[in-house]
Design a protein that fits this description.
With about 80 residues, this protein is α+β, with helices and mostly antiparallel strands. It has one helix and five strands. Strands 1-2-3-4-5 form a five-stranded antiparallel beta sheet, with helices on one face. The longest helix has 14 residues.
Length: about 80
């Protein structure tokens, strides 16, 4: 499974996430990622905000309306995923 590393802008802590799914809506790329590869885990929805040469920058989707809409798309794509 593909992995992505994120650095928290607030704490500087690095977090490694596993990408479960990717989608593009209205030209914007979104990732569904989790902390654990095989087990139930916290899920994150990330939004691509810019590309710098070979580096892609993502941020957590925090807007509730956008988050709920994208979560519904991922739930339809992955029938066995429950966003609780």
């Amino acid at each position: 499974m593909e992995r992505i590393r994120l650095t928290s802008p607030e704490t500087g802590e690095e977090l490694e996430l596993y990408i479960l799914e990717q989608t593009c809506i209205s030209g914007v790329t979104y990732l569904l990622a989790t902390e654990e590869e095989e087990e139930d885990s916290v899920a994150y929805i990330l939004k691509e905000i810019q590309t710098e040469e070979d580096d892609v920058v993502y941020e957590l989707v925090e807007d509730d309306v956008e988050l709920n809409a994208i979560a519904k798309v991922f739930a339809e794509m992955l029938e066995d995923v429950d966003f609780a």
